[in-house]
């Protein structure tokens, strides 16, 4: 049993994973130093929420699967 309820759908998950990975790779290629690693961590977090299917910020905003949460 999961400790959370998925609040983002399949397409949203796929877009989050792709965007998170793209941001992390772009940061490593185009940025340098600590800023690059901060963006990589942000991209990884974004991709992780896509893999898991739960976004805490969406939950706070009341955005969820199947309409109003």
Structural class call reads mainly alpha
Based on DSSP secondary structure assignment, what is the total number of beta strands? 2
Percentage of residues assigned to helices: 55-70%
How many alpha or pi helices? 3
Q: Which residues form runs of ≥5 with pLDDT under 50?
A: none
Biggest sheet, spatial arrangement of strands:
1-2
End-to-end Cα distance, whole Å, is 20 Å
Q: Spell out the helices and strands N to C.
A: HHHEE
**Radius of gyration computed on alpha carbons:** 14 Å
Overall mean pLDDT score? 86
Number of domains: 1
- The percentage of residues in β strands lies in 5-15%
Shape: elongated
The major β-sheet equals: 2 strands, antiparallel
Describe the structure in your own words:
- The chain is mainly alpha-helical and 69 residues long.
- It has one domain (10-62).
- Helix content is 68%, strand content 6%.
- The protein is built from three helices and two strands, in the order H-H-H-E-E.
- A two-stranded antiparallel ribbon has the order 1-2.
- A hairpin with a 2-residue loop joins strand 1 (63-64) and strand 2.
- Helix 1 (10-30) runs antiparallel to helix 2 (33-52).
- The longest helix is centred in the first third of the chain and has 21 residues, at 10-30.
Outline of the structure:
This protein has 69 residues and is mainly α.
């Amino acid at each position: 049993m999961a400790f959370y309820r998925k609040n983002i759908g399949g397409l949203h998950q796929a877009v989050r994973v792709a965007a998170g990975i793209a941001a992390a790779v772009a940061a490593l290629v185009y940025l340098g130093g600590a800023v690059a690693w901060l963006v990589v961590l942000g991209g990884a977090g974004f991709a992780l929420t896509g893999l898991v299917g739960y976004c805490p910020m969406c939950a706070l905003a009341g955005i969820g699967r199947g309409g109003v949460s």
